[in-house]
Amino acid sequence: MKVPSPSYSITLRLRYPDRPGLLGRITSLLGEAGGYIGAVDIVDVRANHITRDFTVNTSDVAHGEAIVARLAEIPELEVVKVSDRTFLLHLGGKIEVNSKVPVKTRDDLSMAYTPGVARVCMAIHKDVDASFALTIRRNTVAVVSDGSAVLGLGNIGPQAAMPVMEGKALLFKEFGGVDAFPICLDTQDVEEIIKTVKFLAPTFGGVNLEDISAPRCVEIEERLRAELDIPVFHDVQHGTAVVVVAALTNALKIVGKSPASLKVTISGAGAAGMAIAKLLKLIGIQNIICCDRVGAIYPGRGDGMNPVKDWLATNTNPEQIKGSLSDAMRGADVFVGVSAAGLVSVDNVKSMAKDAIVFALANPDPEIMPEDAGPYCRIMATGRSDYPNQINNVLCFPGFFRGLLDVRARTVTDKMKLAAAHAIASVISENELLPDYIIPSVFNRKVATVVAEAVSRAAVEDGVARKQTCTIDTNDGDE
Known about the structure:
This protein is an alpha/beta fold. It is built from 18 helices and 13 strands. The chain has helices spanning 22-32, 61-70, 85-90, 106-112, 117-126, 131-134, 158-176, 190-200, 216-227, 235-255, 271-282, 307-315, 325-329, 346-350, 370-373, 397-406, 414-426, 446-461, and strands at residues 5-17, 36-46, 49-58, 78-84, 140-145, 179-184, 206-209, 232-234, 263-267, 287-291, 334-337, 357-360, 379-382. The chain has a 5-stranded parallel β-sheet. The protein has a 4-stranded antiparallel β-sheet with strand order 2-3-1-4. Helix 8 runs parallel beside helix 9, helix 10 crosses helix 11 (271-282) and helix 10 (235-255) packs across helix 17.
């Protein structure tokens, strides 16, 4: 059975006679059924009966249903209500729009709206860049998806993608102080998506592309970067790559290896795999082998290729290794998985080099579980929060966009991505590093701050910043 998780937690409202022994019987039954009890709260006491809410973590929907069925073993027990806590959290959405200024008097109204607002409109008409100071644009990001590659769920469409995009907006605000708005498009046509984002661009200071399938996402991002004067960032690609490089930077300090000496095998030849390979090359790693369902990608391979894989064939696998993922992992110092659950065996990990580093990042279930790989590698990381070394994009994107917005950057550069990776790694000092502590917690509030500062500096150094400092204007919008 999978480990019970808060993402499958339920609240059971149970009513039963208020006499000794029944509470213990209920909690014992819940434990025997594999539920993790998080809280027990009294709701009501009357007529010699008590009503309590039991918050219980389960492993999946079926497990929760099985627990409810087991409660029928107690004949005096009434199951009043069963609530899925995750669904309750999403009722009505997870974000809202709030006003920043009061409108309580005629003066307030005349400044916030007509006639006073006309002067502000004309100031922006004369200097469009003033919109970054005088509107929400200075702190607002569009989170854009077409619903074609949502989490591990696949092509589920724009409506079903909304909970994820809302969640992304929530994390932007919580960790970076960035206002973000989810925009789910009812088209998967590349030209239509590009056209729509361009039409929306005057409202935003940046665009975060999310959960758009490969290889279309690569073309969409490249085209938008070339055609817009605000930064465009596909988080699945670059956020993943930044956090992987941050984790690897610290892991190499523990194992005592240099980037130039490494053999790295990547499972997953989509947008994330390509972005990781590109960033690894920038830190000096040359021997990188990328694998897809067919196997290793190499120059001249004809089966299952596309523009992303064509780039990988030209720019990775210098030894032109052919064969399966197992062949590519043999002797590797580092494995990075951005593919699917269960693709890596214990024997694959055993075949790697001494002090192997394994980043199995497929979600919700990794390419190999830490319990299986752990005894045979030096450092293990996943994308999950219930194991050490969680490689999670939330370590990157809130602070990354905070830095972009603070200097009103026009685009995203490789120097910014490397600066963000080094900033994340720097949060853990060398005397704090351990094999199960190579990456800071997603709840470490220092991370977004240092990432923002590093990205802002890199933007200024690369000459793509409209502002030369991180100070936000509070007057008339002049530089």
